Input
Amino acid sequence: LKGLAKKGIHFYLKNNVLKFFNTRGHYKKDNRDFDYRTDVLWIIDKDKWVVMEKNTVIRDSTSILRSAWVSLRFTDEFKQIKEAASEKQSYFYLEDREKGESKEIKCSNLSSLYNDLGQLIKITVSYNGEILLKSKTSQTIISSNLIDINFNGATGQITNISIPLPGQIESTGKTKFRIIAKKIKADYDSKGELKYCEGKDNVEFNIEEYEGESSIISYLIDKNLVVLEGENSRINNQGNTFNSSKFTIETEKKILTSQD
Output
């Protein structure tokens, strides 16, 4: 971590804490070069903790993080990052130009966890969260006040997403759908494509030409199959309304089945 503090430095000898003002600098991690700037930079050696306050920006050639407050916790001797967090007006963008993929996150609070190799394994998005995930074949928009995204550390691919509070997920591409529910979870395949989505409690949905409501929806995207469960399940299709406690929809064959 290298930089220039244009407005000076405070050194708290007793606690081995450094405080820099109006700082711009450079940081290198895993052969990636990051530039940063912040109004106030704290380095707390005892806890291997770096804090950036006010007007903070960290960027490299493929990513950017902006926030009013950023915290980075490291392993011994600041070798690997363990945790990262940002608060207040957080914005994060990451792209993989080779794969044609990007991730964009807007929220109040953002936190990240890393494994022992310094690889990202989890992101938690809190308060007014909006996520845009793009690939060559699809686009997914997710919104909620709490979203957990889990990653395969080695590949960087998303493995699953959990939304334990009311939220929405909308995807376009091979299959177009939107699910609103009190709880949502989504699973991805090894290529980073959605393969399964589930919503529970007060579910509203639009999938292809079908729309309706249910208590539980299970969408097996890789099998083109939708299962609805709940006493008040309802489906609208081409001007017709159907009610049942359980439906299955074979989206590719356009077959709707009631299992009452």
Remarks:
- The mean pLDDT is 90.
